[in-house]
Design a protein that fits this description.
By secondary structure, this protein is α/β, with parallel strands linked by helices. The chain has helices spanning about 5-15, 35-50, 65-70, 90-95, 170-180, 190-200, 210-220, 230-235, 265-275, 280-290, 305, 315, 325-344; strands spanning about 25-30, 55-60, 80-85, 125-140, 160-165, 205, 225-230, 240-245, 250-260, 320. α2 (about 35-50) packs across α9 (about 265-275). The protein starts with a helix and ends with a helix.
Length: about 350
């Protein structure tokens, strides 16, 4: 991508200037593997190494596993920067596993939307991407594009609805939004369970994984699936006529955060890495590669990419975050109630 040629050139200049970072420094991070890790390398890791001369060691670990490692290594952590997508930074900050971040130490912090930097000084790292949950729909076969979360219950879609099990993180967020528009809350998920029962009676199906969603759209005439914006892009790349739309009542958001680990001596280099992740260049790259929503207000996207993500101040105003600590505290009970509901 052209915007990264300038980063590469600045990296060469930095190396020629022999900065303090270009002396064999090393930081250790986690990334999430697969296509995400490929994009992470393209958008942040490779430009960072070119600009600083430092080496980035990558441990492939999803959020829950990375957090378990962080807890187990509390006295001697291996990570300098740790990434989460399930809200683990909230608990990590409370437990003293993450260091507070002075916003002044990040040159790009001022350009972040407020929600992406609200608790830096408490130890919760900035959100550098958002996986937005809305509705993926078949642009050719659906009678019309859904615009509201209540549209999922429209009998016009009947047996063309695909729900995702709440053991899946995106499935959980979609369910909680359906519950909310039906009058429920995090203290009462029964309205959502009742809505699921109604959907199943009308012929909706439930899947557990994203590849199963693709199968339903490709082979079984699925029209609408509450899920994440990035997967609409995945389906379209597979040749399926799909698009993503936000529900007018709000858009649940999975925050992808970059956090400064406590007890390490690489803070300056680690903060530089985090600062690159929240830069408009890196976030535009993530949006282009994976269709994640940017959190930096200065990001400029093409019309094609912007159509697939939650983009701009008006759109991001509709993002909402269900409290990850409440979800985690209730997950087992909710999954049990869900399983009883879908078994009826």
């Amino acid at each position: 991508m052209k915007i990264y040629s300038s980063i590469a050139l600045s990296g060469v200049a930095a190396l020629m200037a022999t900065t303090a970072f270009a002396q064999g420094g090393t930081i250790t991070i986690n990334s999430f593997g697969g296509a995400y890790e490929e994009a992470h390398r393209q958008c942040v890791i490779d430009p960072f190494e070119a600009e600083t001369g430092a080496t980035v060691q990558i441990v492939t670990a999803y959020s829950a596993d990375a957090f378990a490692q962080l807890r187990a290594q509390a006295q001697a952590p291996q990570f300098d920067v740790i990434h989460f997508s399930g809200g683990q930074e909230i608990v990590g900050a409370q437990e003293g596993l993450l260091d507070p971040i002075d916003p002044a130490s990040l040159s790009n912090a001022a350009d972040l939307y407020d929600f992406a930097k609200s608790n830096l000084e408490a130890g919760e790292g900035p959100a550098y991407s958002i996986a937005a949950i809305g509705m993926i729909y078949n642009t050719e076969n659906a009678p019309e594009a859904p615009s509201s979360w209540t549209d999922i219950l429209d009998e016009a879609y009947a047996d063309h609805i695909v729900l995702t099990d709440i053991s899946n993180g995106y499935g959980m967020l979609g369910f909680l939004m359906l519950n909310q528009v039906q009058g429920g809350s995090l203290d009462d998920i029964q309205p959502g369970l009742d809505a699921v029962s109604s959907l199943l009676e009308n012929g909706a199906i439930i899947v557990s994984t994203s590849p199963e969603i693709q199968q339903e759209f490709a082979q079984n005439d699925a029209w609408v699936a509450p899920y994440a914006s990035d997967y609409a892009f995945t389906l379209r790349n597979a040749g399926l006529p799909t698009a993503f739309v936000q529900g007018e009542e709000g858009t649940p958001a999975s925050f992808i955060t970059a956090n400064l680990v406590a007890g390490r001596d690489n803070d300056e280099l680690a903060l530089k890495f985090i600062d690159m992740e929240i830069s408009p260049e890196a976030q535009a790259c993530f949006a282009d590669a994976l269709r994640y929503t940017p959190t930096n207000s200065k990001v400029e996207l093409s019309e094609e990419v912007a159509a697939d993500v939650v983009y701009g101040p008006d759109a991001v105003a509709g993002l909402l975050r269900f409290d990850p600590t409440v979800i985690e505290a209730n997950r087992a009970d909710w999954v049990d109630a869900w399983n009883r509901t879908i078994a009826q």
